[in-house]
């Protein structure tokens, strides 16, 4: 299916919904006039209209003007939104994608009066610069419908189809994970300031270093330890820094943080 023919509504444009909307609007393979964004306080998304989107506070109107609906509200509001729009959903015409944490496709399907395809998708806020990683699972969906949804999230980064039982883990590693990376970057910048750089210069050096490291892993398809070995010389400054970080619990603290977040979402 041609991406320019996809008509998408993003219901509830808070931080995540806005990020996805801006990512779609900035993608040359997508027709911005086919994007509808909703928010109760419409003035908060007025800038999206300047980029070509249709904005409205009427969720039902958004559904009528689209074939794929992204519900980007908090989990406790999903039921309310579906109750509001389900009368507009038509089998064979609409696909519903929930971005809510913790709600299964089965639970979402039970809120509907009919069996339209239902997906869960977990992007992160890097969608607004088209660098998200989005994990997707679906129910009652054909291969074509699954591919169409995947293509949407490919517009805002990379996406992959996973088993639904891994969606909570995907939320932690991909969505929460970006905050963990930001905290790591902030700590590196603070270290850079302590050894002599001003904050802006430290940020420039650190952000490009992190970007380069991530690109190397993707391009070389190598293990991080193999890349570390290339820059650790005997009795060198890199290995003593790495060893001190490990003595202070760097890796174990990060792993424990990930597992703790996962245990929280599982509850």
Automatic annotation (TrEMBL):
GO molecular function: pyrroline-5-carboxylate reductase activity
Binding site residues for NADPH: 59
Alphabetized UniProt keyword annotations: Amino-acid biosynthesis, Cytoplasm, NADP, Oxidoreductase, Proline biosynthesis
Domain spans labelled Pyrroline-5-carboxylate reductase dimerisation: 164-265
Catalytic reaction list: L-proline + NADP(+) = (S)-1-pyrroline-5-carboxylate + NADPH + 2 H(+); L-proline + NAD(+) = (S)-1-pyrroline-5-carboxylate + NADH + 2 H(+)
Localisation per UniProt entry: Cytoplasm
GO biological process: L-proline biosynthetic process
Binding-site positions, NADP(+): 11-16, 72-75
Family: Belongs to the pyrroline-5-carboxylate reductase family.
Biological function: Catalyzes the reduction of 1-pyrroline-5-carboxylate (PCA) to L-proline.
Protein name: Pyrroline-5-carboxylate reductase
Protein source organism: Labilibaculum antarcticum
């Amino acid at each position: 299916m041609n991406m320019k023919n996809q008509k998408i509504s993003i219901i509830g444009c808070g931080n995540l919904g806005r990020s996805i909307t801006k990512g779609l609007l900035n993608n040359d393979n997508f027709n911005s006039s086919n994007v509808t964004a909703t928010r109760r306080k419409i003035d908060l998304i007025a800038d999206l209209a300047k980029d070509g989107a249709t904005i409205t506070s009427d969720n039902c109107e958004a559904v009528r003007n689209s074939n794929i609906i992204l519900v980007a509200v908090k989990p406790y509001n999903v039921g309310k939104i579906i109750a509001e729009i389900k009368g507009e959903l038509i089998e064979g015409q609409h696909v519903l994608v929930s971005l809510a944490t913790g709600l299964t496709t089965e639970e979402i399907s039970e809120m509907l009066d009919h069996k339209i395809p239902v997906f869960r998708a977990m992007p992160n806020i890097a969608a607004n610069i088209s660098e998200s990683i989005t994990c997707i699972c679906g129910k009652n969906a054909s291969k074509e419908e699954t591919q169409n949804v995947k293509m949407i999230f490919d517009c805002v980064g990379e996406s992959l189809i996973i088993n639904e039982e891994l969606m909570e883990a995907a939320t932690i590693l991909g969505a929460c994970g970006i905050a963990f990376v930001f905290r790591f970057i902030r700590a590196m910048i603070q270290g850079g300031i302590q050894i002599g750089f001003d904050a802006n210069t430290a940020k420039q050096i650190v952000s490009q270093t992190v970007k380069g490291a991530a690109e190397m892993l993707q391009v070389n398809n190598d293990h991080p330890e193999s890349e570390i070995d290339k820059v650790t010389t005997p009795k060198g400054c890199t290995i003593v820094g790495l060893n001190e970080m490990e003595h202070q619990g760097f890796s174990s603290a990060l792993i424990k943080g990930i597992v703790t977040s996962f245990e929280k979402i599982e509850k």
